[in-house]
Amino acid sequence: MSELDKLLAGEPFDFAAPEMVAMRKNAERLLRQIAQSDSSGHDPLWRELFGTLGEGSWVRAPLFCEYGKSIRIGAHSFLNAGVTFLDGTAITIGNNVLVGPNVQFYGASHPIDHIARRDWVARWKPITVEDDAWIGGNAVICQGVTIGARAIVGAGAVVLRDVPPDTIVGGNPARIIRHIDTEKE
């Protein structure tokens, strides 16, 4: 099993393995190319960077990620400028998802124990954003969270727990503001 396969399966992986070092360097190279080029030429670079970029999706630079290949973006989704992915885990963005500017996806966390943190121990849990969700600008989506289908995350929210489908959440920590009645909308 490759180190990337381990990462995607949520298993411990060796971030210093040659495969992972090469993947990080490739992501850095691609992000530099994107930053230094006209947006009309970005699509092939995004496709090389991400594990998947669905048909009709649009990503605006700048963007930050560590690996890129662990990020999967569905069809007809939009990621605005300034998105950050700490992607030492699988991060999945569904179809028809809107992601506002400067949204941060934090797949990593560290132990509470300060001695363990000295060894840079990290714990990774995947993040999933289901179809038709909308994440407002400057929101922070923390490790292990699933944003349910059609949910709306308010600007600046810090999401620590799963967001049920058809709900609007906001605040720090994010809480349900109301349920969306899809029959009336």
Characterise the protein shown here.
The strands form four sheets. The protein has a seven-stranded mixed β-sheet, with no helix packed on it. A five-stranded parallel β-sheet has the order 1-4-7-12-15, with no helix packed on it. It has helices at residues 3-8, 18-35, 42-49, 114-118; strands at 52-53, 58-59, 63-65, 71-73, 78-79, 83-86, 91-93, 98-99, 104-106, 108-109, 123-124, 127-129, 134-135, 140-142, 146-147, 152-153, 158-159, 167-170, 175-179. A hairpin with a 4-residue loop joins strand 18 and strand 19 (175-179). The protein has one domain: 3 Solenoid (UDP N-Acetylglucosamine Acyltransferase, domain 1). Helices cover 20% and strands 28% of the residues. Belongs to the transferase hexapeptide repeat family. Residues 4-55 form the Maltose/galactoside acetyltransferase domain. InterPro entries: Hexapep, Hexapep_transf_CS, Hexapeptide_acetyltransf, Mac_dom, Trimer_LpxA-like_sf.
Number of strands: 19
Low-confidence stretches: none
CATH level-1 class: Mainly Beta
Rounded mean pLDDT score = 94
Radius of gyration: 17 Å
Structure annotation, total helices: 4
Q: Label the structural class.
A: alpha/beta
Question: How are strands sequenced across the largest beta sheet?
Answer: 2-5-8-13-16-18-19
Order of helices and strands: HHHEEEEEEEEEEHEEEEEEEEE
- What is the CATH topology classification name? UDP N-Acetylglucosamine Acyltransferase, domain 1
In CATH, the homologous superfamily goes by the name Hexapeptide repeat proteins
Helix content: 10-25%
